[in-house]
Design a protein that fits this description.
By secondary structure, the chain is mainly beta. The chain has one domain (3-795): TonB-dependent receptor, beta-barrel domain (Maltoporin, Chain A), CATH 2.40.170.20. Helices cover 6% and strands 51% of the residues. The protein is built from six helices and 39 strands. A hairpin with a 6-residue loop joins strand 20 (409-428) and strand 21 (435-456). Residues 1-43, 488-494 and 546-550 have low confidence and may be disordered.
Length: 796
C-alpha cells in the first residue's frame, strides 16, 4: 500500500471512530439564519437554515459537502471582530498572522504564507472575496472587518469554484444588500484604551422597481505597541462607505451596481523586538552597535510591547472599487449572471529598517569611538528609513449559468477572467545596503468551469466539477545603483539602473468530486476528493546585490519561477441537525498533500534577510468538529480543530539565524533539512466556545455572554527558529447587555482578555542577518492586554 493510501486509510478509520461517538467535540460560531437577500429567518431557533453564497449560489450550509463556518454580523459584534486576525479566536481552522500596517498572511488547516511587502504578486492560498469577487492578495482591503452582514469560511482547497487563489480555502465577506423592506442599523463602540467605532447601514425601496443599500463606517483602533523614543502608541484609522443599487428592469432582468470607497491610515510600528542574541553586536564588532544603544530603556524578551525609534512609521492605503452585476432569468429556473468588477488601491508605507534607536549621528559616533575614523562608505547619506509606495489594479469578469438547484440534475458553469498589476517602488538610503527599485508584477488568468449535482433517488447525491485555468505571470524590476561612482539610486531618477524582464505561463485542469448519503432529512454523510493547484511564481522580493556592476549568474536562482504547486485533498464529513433542528453537529476529517509546495523562508546570510521561495512537499491532516445549540433564550457554540501539518520532504532549506551544526545546520552551505518538521503557524489543537443567554424581565432583557478560546503552541516560521515559537494560551471574554423588549436596541458592556494574557499574532526573524545575530520581532495582538468597553446597537 502506498504512503498516500496508508494515510487515507488511517484518516478514514479516525473519521469513522469519531462518527461513532458524536458530540466528542464540536461546533463553530455559526451565524443566525441569514438568507442572501437579508430577510429574517422564519425560525430563529432553526440552526439548519443557515445559508452560504461562497460557492456562487445560495445554499444551505447543511446541504453542501464542504466543511465551513459562517458568522453573522451579530456574531462578529459579540466576538469583537474588528480586524481579520480576530477570526483566529472563533474559527479554529483559521490562522491569520497580522493586525495592521501591511499585508496580512492568511492560513487555513496549517497552510499559510509569510508577510513581506516586497513579495508582490504571490497568492496566499486563501482566496479573500467580497460578495464572491476575489480581492487581490497584495491588497490591504480586508485588514479591517466592516460593512459585513455575514462572513463565510470554506475550509480546504476550493479548486473548481474558488480558482487558482483558493489552494487552502476561501473567506468570503457578504456585505449588506438592497431589500424591498426598509431596514436601518447603527452601531457604536468605545473602549477604555481609546478605541471607538461607528457604523450605519440602511436599505429599502427608492422607487418602484429600484432598491438600494448604503453603509458607512469610521474606526479608530489603538494597539499595545509603544515607541519609547517618541513616547507614542501605534494606532490605525479606517473610514469608508458602500452604495448598492438594484434595478428590476423586467420580470426576467435585474441589474445591480456597487461603489465602494475606503481610506485607512496608521501611525507607529506593528512589530517590536522580542529576541536578540545576548551579548551580540548590531553589525559586526568592534564598530557594531551595542544592544543598549539600539534598544534603550526596555528589555528584549517575549512579552515585550515596546520599541525605540527616531523614525515616524506609518501607512496609508486608499481603495476605490465597484462592480456591475446583471442577472437574466431564463424562465426555467436558470439564471445567467455577468459580474464585472474594477479594483484600485493606492499604497504607501514607511518603516524603520531595524526597529532600533539608531540614527546617522549614532553610527558616526560609534565608529569614531571604536575605530577612530569614519569609513569611506559612511561618507555617503545615511538614513535607516525605508519607504514603499505603489498601487494594485485588478479587473475581473465572470459569466455564469446556474440552473434550478431543485431539479434532479442541476449545474453551474461559467467563464472567469482577471487581470492584476501590482506596481511598487521601494527606496532605502542606508549606506551599507541601499535600495532604489521599481517592482512590477502582472498576473492574467483565464478559466472555464462547470459543476453538476445529480440526485440519485432520495438518499444519494453525486457532485462533480472541473475547471481549466490558464495563467500568465510577469515580473519587471528596475534596480538603480552604481556603487563604483558612489551612486545608490533615488527611486528611479538616478544612474546605473538595471532591468530584468521575466514572464511565464502555465495551465492546469483541476476539479472535485463528492458523494453524499442522506439516511434522513437532517443527517448527511459525504466523502470528497479535490485536485487543485497554485501556478508558478517569481521571488519578487529578492534584492539584487548592490556591489555588482551588472546582473550576474548568482541572481539566476532568484529570478527563476518556482514549480507549480499541485494539491490532492480527501475529506470525509458528517452534517446533522437534531432536536427538531435546534442542534447541529458537523464533523470533518481530511488529508491534503501539497506537491511542490511553495514554501517561504527568510535567507539571513545577507546584510538584510530576503524572502526565499523554495519548493517542498508537505501535507496536512486533521479533524474538525462543530456544534451549535439554539433554543429559546440560549445560544451555545463549540468548535474544535486538530491539525497535523508537516513537511514531507524539504532538504536544502535555509537555516535560521545563528543555527549551529549541533542544531542541524550545514553551516558552510547555510542549509538544513526540514523533512518531518511542522509547517509554520499550525497549532495542533484549537478550541473555541461561546454562550449567550437572554434573561427576560418585565421591562427589558438582560444579555449574558462569554467567549473562550484555547490553542496549543506553534512555531510561526518554517525555519524552526525556537524564538519564533508562540506558546499555547487561552483567552476569556465576558459581556453584560441590556435589550429592549422589541429587541431593536441593546447596550452591551464587555471585557476582553479577562486574564490579561499577552500573546503575538506573528513572530518573524526577517530582520536578522549575517551582521546582527538572531533577531526576532513580534506583532502584539490588539487584545494582547485586558481592556473593556461598551457597544450600542440599534436595528429596525
Amino acid at each position: 500500500m502506498s504512503s498516500l493510501l496508508r494515510q487515507r486509510a488511517k484518516l478514514s478509520v479516525s473519521a469513522l471512530a469519531l462518527l461513532a461517538a458524536p458530540l466528542a467535540f464540536g461546533g463553530n460560531a455559526l451565524a443566525q439564519s441569514v438568507p442572501a437577500d437579508g430577510t429574517p429567518a422564519a425560525k430563529p431557533d432553526d440552526t439548519a437554515e443557515i445559508v452560504v453564497t461562497a460557492q456562487k449560489r445560495t445554499e444551505r450550509l447543511q446541504d453542501i459537502p464542504v466543511a465551513a463556518a459562517v458568522l453573522s454580523s451579530g456574531s462578529i459584534a459579540q466576538n469583537h471582530v474588528s480586524d481579520l486576525s480576530d477570526i483566529n479566536r472563533i474559527v479554529p481552522s483559521v490562522e491569520i498572522k497580522g493586525t495592521f500596517n501591511g499585508r496580512v498572511p492568511y492560513g487555513i488547516r496549517g497552510i499559510s504564507t509569510n508577510a513581506n511587502e516586497g513579495a508582490i504578486g504571490l497568492t496566499s492560498g486563501v482566496s479573500i472575496q467580497v460578495d464572491g469577487v476575489p480581492v487581490p492578495a497584495d491588497s490591504f482591503a480586508a485588514n479591517t472587518v466592516t460593512d459585513v452582514q455575514q462572513l463565510e469560511v470554506l475550509k480546504g482547497p476550493q479548486a473548481t469554484l474558488g480558482g487558482r487563489t483558493a489552494s487552502a480555502g476561501v473567506i468570503n465577506f457578504v456585505t449588506y444588500a438592497p431589500s424591498e423592506v426598509n431596514k436601518f442599523g447603527f452601531n457604536a463602540m468605545l473602549t477604555n484604551d481609546g478605541e471607538h467605532h461607528m457604523d450605519v447601514h440602511g436599505s429599502g425601496q427608492i422607487l418602484p422597481g429600484l432598491t438600494g443599500s448604503i453603509s458607512a463606517y469610521y474606526q479608530h483602533t489603538p494597539y499595545p505597541v509603544y515607541n519609547a523614543t517618541l513616547k507614542e502608541h501605534s494606532n490605525a484609522d479606517s473610514k469608508g462607505g458602500r452604495i448598492k443599487l438594484k434595478w428590476q428592469a423586467t420580470d426576467a432582468l435585474d441589474i445591480g451596481v456597487m461603489a465602494h470607497y475606503a481610506l485607512s491610515t496608521s501611525s507607529g510600528e506593528n512589530f517590536v523586538p522580542v529576541y536578540f542574541t545576548p551579548g551580540a553586536y548590531f553589525f559586526a564588532a568592534p564598530a557594531g552597535l551595542t544592544q543598549s544603544v539600539m534598544f534603550p530603556g526596555y528589555n528584549i524578551q517575549y512579552g515585550n510591547t515596546t520599541y525605540a525609534s527616531h523614525t515616524v512609521m506609518g501607512s496609508r492605503y486608499e481603495d476605490k472599487d465597484g462592480s456591475l452585476v446583471i442577472n437574466y432569468h431564463l424562465g426555467n429556473g436558470s439564471v445567467l449572471t455577468s459580474t464585472t468588477s474594477l479594483f484600485r488601491e493606492n499604497q504607501w508605507q514607511t518603516q524603520d529598517v531595524f526597529e532600533g534607536n539608531v540614527s546617522a549621528a549614532t553610527v558616526f559616533q560609534n565608529f569614531l569611538y571604536n575605530v577612530g575614523a569614519i569609513p569611506a562608505a559612511l561618507n555617503q547619506p545615511f538614513d535607516n528609513l525605508q519607504t514603499a509606495y505603489g498601487y494594485v489594479h485588478q479587473t475581473t469578469e465572470e459569466v455564469k449559468l446556474a440552473s434550478d438547484a431543485a431539479r434532479p440534475v442541476s449545474y453551474i458553469a461559467g467563464f472567469f477572467y482577471s487581470d492584476m498589476t501590482v506596481n511598487q517602488n521601494e527606496f532605502r538610503n542606508w549606506t551599507l545596503n541601499p535600495l532604489a527599485k521599481d517592482n512590477i508584477s502582472s498576473t492574467t488568468n483565464y478559466a472555464i468551469y462547470g459543476r453538476a449535482t445529480a440526485k440519485l433517488g432520495d438518499k444519494f447525491i453525486v457532485v462533480g466539477g472541473l475547471r481549466y485555468n490558464w495563467d500568465k505571470i510577469g515580473w519587471n524590476i528596475t534596480q538603480f545603483f552604481d556603487p563604483a561612482n558612489g551612486i545608490y539610486g533615488d527611486g528611479g531618477y538616478g544612474q546605473g539602473g538595471y532591468t530584468w524582464n521575466l514572464k511565464d505561463s502555465s495551465s492546469a485542469l483541476v476539479g472535485d468530486a463528492a458523494i453524499q448519503f442522506k439516511p434522513s432529512r437532517d443527517v448527511m454523510v459525504y466523502g470528497s476528493y479535490t485536485r487543485g493547484y497554485k501556478p508558478r511564481a517569481f521571488n519578487t522580493v529578492h534584492d539584487f546585490a548592490t556591489t555588482q556592476a551588472a546582473p550576474g549568474a548568482a541572481d539566476l536562482p532568484f529570478t527563476q519561477a518556482t514549480k507549480r504547486e499541485t494539491i490532492d485533498s480527501f475529506e470525509l464529513g458528517l452534517k446533522s441537525s437534531l432536536l427538531d433542528r435546534h442542534l447541529t453537529f458537523n464533523l470533518a476529517a481530511y488529508y491534503t498533500k501539497y506537491t511542490n509546495y511553495q514554501a517561504q523562508l527568510f535567507d539571513n546570510s545577507q546584510v538584510i534577510a530576503v524572502l526565499v521561495l523554495a519548493n517542498a512537499d508537505a501535507r496536512t491532516e486533521g479533524v474538525e468538529g462543530d456544534l451549535t445549540y439554539v433554543r429559546g433564550n440560549t445560544r451555545f457554540n463549540l468548535s474544535g480543530a486538530y491539525t497535523d501539518a508537516k513537511f514531507i520532504s524539504f532538504p536544502g532549506a535555509v537555516c535560521y539565524p545563528s543555527q549551529t551544526a549541533a542544531q542541524g545546520c550545514n553551516v558552510s552551505a547555510n542549509t538544513q533539512d526540514l523533512t518531518g518538521k511542522p509547517l509554520p503557524s499550525s497549532p495542533k489543537f484549537k478550541l473555541t466556545g461561546s454562550l449567550q443567554q437572554t434573561v427576560p424581565t418585565d421591562k427589558f432583557n438582560i444579555l449574558l455572554g462569554t467567549n473562550v478560546s484555547y490553542r496549543t503552541g506553534t512555531n510561526m516560521q518554517a525555519d524552526q527558529n525556537p524564538y519564533t515559537r508562540q506558546p499555547g494560551f487561552a483567552l476569556v471574554d465576558l459581556s453584560l447587555g441590556f435589550q429592549n423588549k422589541a429587541q431593536t436596541a441593546s447596550l452591551t458592556f464587555f471585557v476582553n482578555n479577562l486574564t490579561n494574557h499577552m500573546y503575538y499574532t506573528n513572530l518573524e526573524d526577517f530582520f536578522a542577518s549575517a551582521t546582527s545575530a538572531n533577531y526576532v520581532i513580534g506583532q502584539p495582538a490588539r487584545d494582547s492586554h485586558r481592556y473593556f468597553g461598551g457597544r450600542l446597537s440599534v436595528n429596525f
